[in-house]
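Hi team,

As requested, here is the filled-out complex form for the 2-acetamido-2-deoxy-beta-D-glucopyranose run. I kept the field names the same as last time so the parser does not choke. Let me know if anything looks off before we queue the next batch.

— J.
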Amino acid sequence: MRRWAMDFLTLFAVYVVAVLTCIALVCRYSGRQQTPFTLLLDCVWRVIAPVTPEWLRRCSHGAVHKLFHQRNTMFIYLHLLLEGAVYAEFTCEVVGYCREMDTTLTSLSVPYVLLAVKSFLFYLCITTDPGSVTKQSVAGQLQVYPYDKRMFHPGISCPTCLLLKPARSKHCRTCNRCVQRFDHHCVWVNNCIGAQNTRYFLLYLLSVCAMAGDVALLTADMLLHAVLRSGLLRASYIDDDGTRQTAGPLFVMQHLFLTFPRIVFMLGFLVFVFFLLAGYALFHCYLALVNQTSNEWYKSRGLVCRHCRPGAAAHHQRGPAPDRSQRHYYSRGLLKNLAEIFLPLQPALKKSN
Ligand SMILES: *[C@@H]1O[C@H](CO)[C@@H](O)[C@H](O)[C@H]1NC(C)=O
Ligand SMILES: [Zn+2]
Ligand SMILES: [Zn+2]
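And here is what came back:
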């Protein structure tokens, strides 16, 4: 029994490490901009990079560049694949057990409602123009926000688009366009997040969290019922030395792993995804409430975009170092800030008389 438990623990540890590594890799390369995760992972990368062979480093760098720094739909398919796998597992196995355990149909249908809502918001994120700065729109977009002369200075043109940069805009290297009220380029929706779709992105993040959380809760509830029904908590066994032992939590976990391997695996995945996304969603809610974009958040902390070649930083519109004590000086109150996300200020359209 002891030997068995040891094997199980090793296996479980390998599983946890594998999942964490996958998540770490996704964090390392998604989103392009620094996130708290990527900063942490950068440190790890710096430690392991010297011991990685040069050819491997160069090879992976090239592949990673293609995958993450050019527009491509791979992440959208990956996203749909993961979602499909989770929902297939949920529908085929968990729902059946839940029905046996008298979970109501109403609560079982919530994940599907959330799925529909999330898919709609996902679609909006992908297809909405985030607020591209074009020859036609630039005049109107210049009027929307005043230049603060700290992070954004008047009279600077984008060296690529050759158009004046409106305050709070930034050139997206992946999409090769300037975007009004630029937040970040999101590889998962293959689109920039900017003035016109931050609201969908925010709701989308919250709906994915709700979805993962709800499926995880229903699944955990089902497993709990399964354990209670099996009477395992009261069971006991005879160990190697011939003494009677009560089945502890380790024993129960082992039983669940062996009886419902796919369901337990899915639950583990969902819990990780939930905490990852909840953290990210909270960060974006915070930004929305204080009227900041991720771009401004990084800038105000003096974190320079690590993808820019040194010397090519003209588009960062460097000004005097931002004063930390005045970090939220943009904010005009939480409600007004939120209103601006959900009813973005429209560029004044020039009427041709
Ligand atoms: C948000 O910040 C910008 C700063 O450029 C400001 O012009 C705008 O009025 C602010 N909006 C609110 C609702 O505070
Ligand atoms: Zn540009
Ligand atoms: Zn982009």
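Two things worth flagging: The beta strands are 170-172, 177-179, 184-186, 191-193, 236-238, 244-246. Residues 145-146, 148, 167-168, 291, 330-332, 336-337, 340 surround 2-acetamido-2-deoxy-beta-D-glucopyranose (ligand 1) (CB under 6 Å).

Thanks,
J.
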